[in-house]
Amino acid sequence: MTVTQQAIASAALRYKGKGYVYGGDCSGGPGDWDCSSFVSYVLGHDLKMRLPGGGKFGDPGEPPNAHGPVVLDYAQWPGATTVSQPSRGDLVCWPGSGPDGHIGIVLGPNQMISALNPQLGTLVSPIDGSGPAGVPHIFRQVTGKAGQLPPPAVASAHLPGLAGSAAGALLLTVGLVGGAAVLIVVAWPVITGVVGFGIASGVKHARQS
Question: What is the 3-class SS of the chain, one letter each residue?
Answer without folding.
Answer: CCCCHHHHHHHHHCCCCCCCCCCCECCCCCCCECHHHHHHHHHHHHCCCCCCCCCCCCCCCCCCCCCCCCHHHHHCCCCEEEECCCCCCCEEEECCCHHHCEEEEEEECCEEEEEEECCCEEEEEECCCCCCCCCCCEEEEECCCCCCCCCCCCEEEECCCCCCCCEEEEEEEEEEECCEEEEEEEEEEECCCCCCEEEEEEECCCCCC
